[in-house]
Design brief:
- By secondary structure, the protein is mostly beta strands.
- Among the domains are: 83 residues, Lipocalin (Beta Barrel), CATH 2.40.128; 62 residues, no CATH class.
- It has two helices and 19 strands.
- It has a 19-stranded mixed β-sheet that branches.
- The two termini are 44 Å apart.
Length: 296
């Protein structure tokens, strides 16, 4: 019979005002440095602002920041949990994926001294366990234009693909070629920059189909993308929606500005963050509020 590892997602011990909170993953307990609660809403304006709850997330960060557990609570699906483990260089080395109390998948990474990924494995823990290992090696060559860096990838020990990155003398990438295991180009991407080095556009050519796709980089419009200080009410679990509506009314002119089909406004202080975003391509308007707890 297949056995699953159960995870006890959070245990908080409170005995006094200075009590230490902890969270437990499988059989190991980690002192908690902070807990972050994030609530996401869709919103619309019709005579007044209206919020529609979408989902929420709780993030537990260990005191040394080397373990981060994220619980996602969709409205119509089971709770999803991921636990990320970092090394002393703050590189992600392992992720455990859970659905409710069941461990579904384990992903691991290893790096070289240049901070490049050289090993990536994934193991699923379902009734028919599936796993794979990708390993990477690199080759760097100097060219008259700058340097090329070739990444070779093997899948379960067999060549899978290679990627050649072309850099100019300013170490700015200007072309990338992806080849299959037979060293045939399947993806050629070129980058176009302004005179001051700002990326303007990308072109991707697919030789097998003779198709080229063009992507224009969106500029950063400071009128429609701002980060500002958050002032006013103390935010709690109970008043979070009232605070969101209050902030929306306070910044009504920003949120309803027709000159900003795409926008993001962030209001933040030491403990809380409120963000409002709009994407014309997806026709979405989103409001999020983050409440951070710090453990004593």
């Amino acid at each position: 019979m297949k056995q699953y590892f159960a995870v006890l997602l959070l245990i908080i011990y409170i005995t006094s005002a200075s009590a230490q909170a902890s969270f437990k993953v499988i059989f190991k307990t980690y002192p908690t440095g902070s807990i972050q609660h994030i609530y996401n809403y869709d919103y619309l304006y019709k005579d007044e602002f209206h919020l529609f709850y979408r989902d929420s997330t709780v993030i537990y960060i260990s005191k040394d920041s080397m373990v981060i557990m994220t619980e996602q609570y969709p409205t119509k699906e089971k709770m999803i949990c991921t636990v990320d483990y970092y090394n002393t260089k703050k590189q992600l080395v392992k992720t455990e994926h859970f659905i409710e109390d069941y461990l579904m998948k384990i992903t691991e990474w290893k790096y070289d001294t240049m901070k490049r990924i050289i090993y990536h494995s994934e193991k699923e823990t379902d009734s028919k366990t599936r796993s794979y290992v990708r390993s990477y090696s690199f080759e760097v060559k100097k060219t008259p234009e700058g340097v090329t860096e070739t990444e070779y990838c093997k899948f379960n020990g067999k060549p899978e693909f290679s990627t050649i990155n072309y850099y100019d003398k300013k170490h700015q990438i200007y072309k990338q070629v992806r080849e299959n295991d037979a060293h045939k180009a399947i993806h050629i991407e070129t980058y176009n920059y302004s005179s001051n080095g700002k990326l303007l556009s990308r072109e991707i050519f697919f030789p097998e189909f003779g198709i080229t796709k063009y992507y224009k980089e969106k500029g950063w419009d400071t009128k429609c993308n701002k980060t500002m200080p958050l002032t006013g009410d103390y935010i709690t679990e109970e008043n979070k929606e009232q605070v969101l509506i209050k902030e929306m009314n306070k910044n009504k002119n920003l949120l309803l500005n027709s000159d900003c089909p795409d926008m993001e406004f962030i209001f933040t202080n030491f403990a809380n963050t409120i963000s409002f975003s709009k994407e014309s391509e997806r026709n979405t308007k989103t409001a999020s509020i983050s409440i951070k707890e710090r453990m004593k």
